[in-house]
Amino acid sequence: MPAYVFSRSWSYHDYLQAKNLHDVLSDTVAGPLSDIVATQSESQAELRKIREALEVGSITLATGLAELNATFEWGFGELLMAVGRLQDSLQSLLRIAKAPAQTWAYEQFEIARDAYRRRLFNECLEHVDRAIGGFGSNTGYALDYRFHYLRGVVLMGSFYNRARTMIRLPDAQQAFCTAARYALHDTPQEASRSFLAAGWCAYCQGDVVQALELTRKSQRLNGSLSTAHYQLAKILMHSGRPAEAIPHFKAAVDLDRRHALKVLDDSDFTRHPGDVASALEELRSKARYEMAAVWTLVQGLKWMRDFKAGSFTMTKLGDPGVASALDGALQAVETANAKETYFGYLDATSTLRNSARIVVELFETFVHTAEAERVRQLRVSETAVEQLRDAGLPVGCIMAIALLLALMVFMLTGGLGANNWPAALWALIFLITLIVSLSRRVDRSSKIRDELRLQQNLRQMEPYLAQLGPRARASMSSALGATQIGTQP
């Protein structure tokens, strides 16, 4: 995916004429620095994604690209048209029209956009010029940045629009600067993108001073635009100022890691191999350190997998996904340490953070389940105690049995003569019944005590379970809170 590098003997037009889509959409990168960034399979996977995005963008403007990032390549004007407000529908544009002249201008702009989609670039330029300057009795409308931006895209050229008579870089630069001026107040991100394109036009003309000034304006308006940081680094590298370029290159990679691949095939960077190698090695070391830090925190989540509170354990009530997530985290770290690449460490860190989320989410589910089970067991125990107490012998019944016992003793000692044995037999039966009843009462009392102890334990567990959720979330926040580097939109 070789990038254009300005040369007096090799114009941007020559680059567009000489390169074809196969050259630009390569799936491989080579060079001594590539092993720092990614393995061959990792780089192929990333470049394939870039290739697919560019191929789709070269066919249709509906790329789903939210902002210019590392998937963007100069030479693909379709992507410049696909981001931002350039694709606002004609209906939405007509709603903001305040005069018939504006309505007519927006209709001309719609015709120009359709012509660009159909790769009718002369016709596109004709109608966008009418939208700006008018035609016949229609005065046009010069203050909408979209018109000037589209004009700049056409005059900049692309791999599909590379006729020498069409590519006029000075006019394209002026169109983009005008677009930025009109967009600046209401839509600074659109202005940032316009300044970026103007900066590229200046670079392709060899005007490094203007290229730096315009690209810096773009970067200041939108600090999260990774392409602006990368372009600024490229121009500084081209100017022989690598010390100034490297911080911007790192910023670009921190915003979108795929810029680390693009630098491997950009001669403005590779002509400074020592500086680039040092920067890439620093990025790799930073990614390795971050992975190790997050891994330490993820290891601290193991208490959730082994958690036990009374009868509530992850083994019984939890989800086996906790153990699986922790095993996956370990495997990711081992794989990254084996590869020793920047992308490998970033991928492992991403896996670790995702594992932390899974573990904590499953543990919080377990806590909710345990709390519901605690409440259920408490209610069951309270009901059991009530039933046991209701089943006890009334005091009057106990007194009656005691009287029968006294009667039996009286008879056995000779009361009522020799024929008292039937009464004694009945008294014996009542005595046995009393003994059985009393033994059951003792057993019920023991069960009540056990249930009351269980209730006490269950009630004491309530605040403990309540604080587990925040504790788990705090652990996850620590694992996720490290500065995320090399992100990928």
What does this structure look like?
The longest helix is centred in the last third of the chain and has 60 residues, at 421-480. The chain contains 23 helices and two strands. A two-stranded antiparallel sheet has the order 1-2. It has helices at 12-18, 21-24, 34-37, 40-59, 77-82, 90-96, 100-117, 121-133, 145-156, 169-183, 188-204, 208-221, 226-238, 242-255, 259-262, 267-270, 273-299, 302-305, 314-317, 321-339, 342-390, 395-412, 421-480; strands spanning 308-309, 312-313. It is mainly α and 489 residues long. Helices cover 72% and strands 1% of the residues. 40% of the residues are buried. The chain has a domain at 12-271: Serine Threonine Protein Phosphatase 5, Tetratricopeptide repeat (Alpha Horseshoe). Helix 11 (188-204) runs parallel beside helix 13 (226-238), helix 20 packs antiparallel against helix 21 and helix 22 (395-412) runs antiparallel to helix 23. The chain is elongated and about 140 Å long.
The total count of strands amounts to: 2
**Widest sheet: strand ordering:** 1-2
Question: So, CATH architecture of one domain?
Answer: Alpha Horseshoe
How would you sum up the global shape? elongated
Any key phrases for this structure?
disordered C terminus; Serine Threonine Protein Phosphatase 5, Tetratricopeptide repeat; 23 helices; single chain; 1% strand; mainly alpha; two-stranded antiparallel sheet; elongated; 489 residues
Can you give me a brief rundown of this structure?
With 489 residues, the chain is an all-alpha fold. It has helices at residues 12-18, 21-24, 34-37, 40-59, 77-82, 90-96, 100-117, 121-133, 145-156, 169-183, 188-204, 208-221, 226-238, 242-255, 259-262, 267-270, 273-299, 302-305, 314-317, 321-339, 342-390, 395-412, 421-480; strands spanning 308-309, 312-313. Mean pLDDT is 81; it is low at 58-63 and 482-489.
